[in-house]
Every structure is written in structure tokens, then in C-alpha cells.
Amino acid sequence: MLKSSFLKAVAATALTVSTWASAHAVDLQFYFPVAVGGSAAETIQELTAEYVAQNPDVNIDAVYAGSYQDTVAKAITASRGGNPPQLSVILSVDMFTLIDEDLIVSFDDYLTSEEDKEWLNGFYQAFMENSQTDGKTYGIPFQRSTPVLYWNKEAFKEAGLDPDVAPATWDEMVEFGKKLTKKDDSGNVTQWGVRIPSSGFPYWLFQGLAIENGVILANSEGNQTNFDDPKAVEALQYLVDLSTKYEVMAPGIIEWGATPKAFFEGQTAMMWTSTGNLTNVRDNAPFEFGVAMLPEKVQRGAPTGGGNFYLFKGGSDEQNQAAVDFVKWITAPEQSAKWTMATGYVAPRPETWETETMKQYVEGFPAVLVARDQLQYAKAELSTYQNQRVTGIFNDALAAAITGTKTPEEALKEAQQQADAILTEYR
Amino acid sequence: MNSMGQTFDRFLNTLAAWALALIWILPLAYAVWTAIHPAAYEARFELFAPLTYDNFVKAWEAAPFARYFLNTFILVTMILACQFFLCTLAAYAFARFEFPGRNVLFALVLLQLLVMPDILIVENYKTMRLLDLVDTIPAIALPYVASGFGIFLLRQTFKTIPKELDEAARIEGSSFLGVLWRVYIPLAKPTYLAYGLVSVSHHWNNFLWPLIVTNSVETRPVTVGLSVFSAIDSGIEWSVINAATLITSGPLLIAFLLFQRQFVQSFMRAGIK
């Protein structure tokens, strides 16, 4: 930091032209969260530094802001305190909250040319669902993910299943699961068939089941939920049945964070979790594994997840334009490929997958394609106004059904009533 | 019979103490276990599992911890020094001086104990911005220096000090501040020690406010470094997290072990009065 400003000072005195440039440089502040291990923070800092080096008329201060929750807290506090960042990466589901708080502006005012509109259409539609509302674009996809099914090929072989074929339907998942569930002599399960974690944010993976069963849990205006739709009830019944009726999944709430570990240790033969885990699984699974799309009921389906770029209120037009230019650059194929390889997030633009770097990466690790190909069936992650409260209610309902304190129907009906009470004022 | 009853009673006490101690130490023991073994042994407990210090190296390299430690050290020292100074003077005034509005003012100080600092984050941020202190260590410290708890604790301690000592010193010609310095502060040492421990450990562990009010490596404390490891999107590496946790809490743990007798005694004395 000190060193770079020192260098800048030296350069400024040496060259009058650069004095002019740095005097007129646009200053941007950019908050980013980190939700993957390893060197994600460093990669963002490096990319930002590269951009600043190429564009001497912009200064970007990339600020690490903790987890997604911390980042949104920091951005809201700073905005209310009169010191908003120009850009921030925040969960795509926080879009309605940020609109409601009147903290963000849409990108459309700064994307006016035909070329710009073309660029906006270059993102996967599944990712844009969480980024647009009312015909306006508030988010630009950046670190996005989607859940997939991982399976242990050795366990499949042992159970007499074809190790190269993952279950393609709900029924197959149960059927395979029954063969894969192993018990010891005293009747204790040593290996479960499947593991769908339900701690913390159960709505996300449950949404996979709901979409597969043909129901969308919230509308794109963010003011209406369909929690008690009979198809949602059926999906939840299936999730509960996996433990109680079919006995292929451990009963009760299943820990999200411990799931990859349980998979590595052979406590489960299949798991549902984020594509963000790909690199982790590749590095740590002591057996051959496969990656597949989530199984279908009436159709394939999965939610998207992860974070978007948001443009904050309070910047000058010049700053906002510079921020938009930076977003365009960092989501461009070469940078996006670098980011995807460093983190495991799904590259949000088809053109990124056409780059040489990406092609080589895919060749060495074809599993990453599964997530990309699943995107055509993916839908928006559950997001509404008052998102924290509404998803909170929904999570509680799911937990109540999973632990057996309420039937799926009761739980979802109550959740729908509570969500309605909150959302009526936004209709 | 009576003595047998007593032995039994004692046995139960010891048993309960051991049980509580075990429950207390388990997370720490698990942290140590995972931190010194490769990731494969996170959930497998084999006595002769290979030892490694890789986790510590990995954790240390994941964030600029050296700088963060320096920042945290400056931060807790600054807060503690300011708290001692302000709370001592305020507590002395509340304990020994009659002035109009004293009770109302003291009630206001007590009221501060009821307010969660998190509620005030936006207001505090505005103040810091007004003072042009955003992204500095004093900005992290300032909202905490006038501690209601500290004032209350010291006032109670000062009140228990016999007035005769105060009067004797006054007769000897000591000024108000002289009495404070020579009589009150020395006699309140255990309270200072106990309060200092609570304050240091609280601010050592504080996370949200420092994260929000600072932006750069030069000002952020260790807890911000620790948060890099909460990687919910990609699977949690317990061994590295625990190594990092041990690194960041290590200095406090060591300090506590070294001074534990003094700490426990001062807590007891501060509490009994």
C-alpha cells in the first residue's frame, strides 16, 4: 500500500502526463466477501491490481468484507453512514432487500449502447433471474454456484451398481440408496445412501427438489411465495421419506459443513452440495468420485446461488461509469476463467467456456461441465422482499418437518401464512 | 455418619467439577488435536496419528497475521488505557463527591449497560466519519472507551474503601487527585486486574464493528484475519481453522495460564466485596 503510493508519487513527479492522469483519477471502493477457502481474496486483489495497472485513470480499493452476511452489514452501515462503496459483491438473494433499503441503482443507466445490451444478454439466463426485477438489472453475476450430486464410485461398485451411472430420477436415488446403505451386525448404519444437508439454509437444497417437482417457490417480483403448493408439500414429503420411510439418509438435521467430510470418510455414498466444493472433493476424496446433475421428478432442476455485483447509490456518474467498466472487465472471458479456476464458481458467461484456458481446465477436470450443463434447468434462488425473515420462516418450517415435529403439509401451510403476512405490503 | 455424608458430598463436588472441566476443555482439546494432525484425522482419533505443523503454516499464510497481531495489540492496549483513565475519574466522582444531578447521571451510565453496542453501529459509524476516523485503529476503540460497566465496577469498589483512609490522607494534606492516586487506586488493584481481563478478552475477540469500520490490512485486528476461513461454499477445513484459532487465541491463553492465580484471586476478591 505505502510502497505503491510511493511509486505513484515518483512516477508523478517524473512525468507530467501521469501527474495529470492521477490528479483526475476516479477513486472507487469495492467490497467483496469470501465464501470459499484458499486464496480467493488474493485472486480478487490481484485482478483488481491488474486492472488498475492497465487503467491509470482509475483507482480501485478492493476491501475484504468477511462473509456474505458481514459484507451486506458493512455495505448497509457504510451507506447509512454516508460513505457507501461504489461496488460490492453481495448475495444475489439480497437484491430485494437492497432495493427496499434504497441503497442500490440499476446498471441500465450505464449500459445504454447496443453493444452494452448485447453484453448483458451474454450471461446465463438462470443467473440473471436473481439479478433483474421490474425490467431493470440490479445485479451482475460474478461468484455463482449451483448444487450437484457427488457419488462415490467405489461404494457403487461394492453395492453392485454401475460405478459410472448416477441416479437420474428420485425413484432411482431411493433404489440406489437402499443398495448403498450398509449396516453392521448390531444394526447400526455404517454407510448411508445419500446425504442432503439441512442445517443453516435448508431452503437451498430443498429448492432443488421443489424445482424438480415443477414448482417455483417465489415470483420474480419478490412479493409472493408458493410454500404450500401441493408440489412443494410432495417434495418435502420425499425429503422426509428419505430418512423415515426409505431409510437411506440419516434422520434429523444434517450438518452442511460436515457433509464433504462425511463423504470422504465413507459415511455416505452420495451427497448433494454446492459446485463450490469441487476442488475440495477432488483434492481430498480418497476414492474415485463422479459428479452428476440433481435427479429429476417431472424435470431436471436446481437453484442457483452465490453473489452478484451491485452498484451503490451515492457515487458520481463518472464513478458509476468507471465501476461498470470494471465489472465488464472482470467478468470478461480471460478474467472470469482465472476466477473460476481459482475458486470453483461457475463461469457466468458462455463465452468464458470457449477460451483456451478454460478448455484446458475442463479437459483435465470434466466434472466442472456438469454444473454448467445443469444451468439450462436451473431457476432463481429463493429471494423475496424482507428476504431474511421470509427465508427464516421457511427454513424453520423445513426443519420442523425434517425433525418430525410437524407434518410437511402443516409446516408449509403455516410458513405460507406467515410469509403472506409479511409480503402483503409489497404487493 | 456425618463424616461419611461429608465425604460423599465432597466426592460429588469433585466429580461435578471434573465433569464441568472436561466439558469445558473438550473443544480446546479437539482444536489442538485437529491442528497438529493432517486433515484425514479430523474425525478419526488414533493415538499414533502422524503429527504435522503444516496446518499452522497454511493458516499463518492465509492472512497477514503478523500485522493483524500488532493491530490487535495496539487496539486492546489503547482501549484499556483509556478505559482505566476515564472510568477511574468518573467512578471517583460518583463514589465520593456530592454534586447536583449525580444520581441521574449515574442512572444514565447504568442505562448504557442495557444497550447492545450492535444497535449503535450505524450511529457510531456516522460519528467516526464526522471525525474523519474511518479506517483507523482509534475508530475501533473510541465507542468503547467510556465503559459503563467499568465505571459501575470501580464505583462499587471505591465505595467499599473506608472513608477514614480518605480522611486521614486529606488531613495529611493530600489533594483530591492525590487521594485517588495513593489510596483508592492501590486498594482497587484486584478490580482493575479483573476488569482488565474482561476488557482485553472482549476486544481481542470483537469482530463485527472492527470489520465494518476498517478497510485495510494496516488497521484490522486478528479476528478479521480469522474470518477468511469461514468458507461455506467450498467445504470447511477444520484442521486449518483450528490451527488459526489457536494462533489467534494463543497469546490470551498463555497470558491467562501464566497469571491465572492472580486472575482467579482478584475475581474472588472483587466479587466478595
UniProtKB/TrEMBL annotation, chain A:
Pfam families xrefs: SBP_bac_8
Transport is among the record's keywords: no
Any coiled-coil regions, as ranges: none
Location of the protein in the cell: Periplasm
Keywords (A to Z) from UniProt: Periplasm, Signal
Region forming the signal peptide: 1-23
Domain of life: Bacteria
Chief localisation class: periplasm
A Gene Ontology cellular-component term: periplasmic space
Keyword flag Signal: yes
Family: Belongs to the bacterial solute-binding protein 1 family.
Protein name from the UniProt record: Carbohydrate ABC transporter substrate-binding protein (CUT1 family)
From TrEMBL, chain B:
Keywords attached to this entry: Cell membrane, Membrane, Transmembrane, Transmembrane helix, Transport
Topology with respect to the bilayer: Multi-pass membrane protein
Residues in the signal sequence: none
GO cellular component labels: plasma membrane
Entry superkingdom: Bacteria
Location within or outside the cell: Cell membrane
Biological process annotations from GO: transmembrane transport
Residue ranges of domain ABC transmembrane type-1 in the record: 69-259
Descriptive protein name: Carbohydrate ABC transporter membrane protein 2 (CUT1 family)
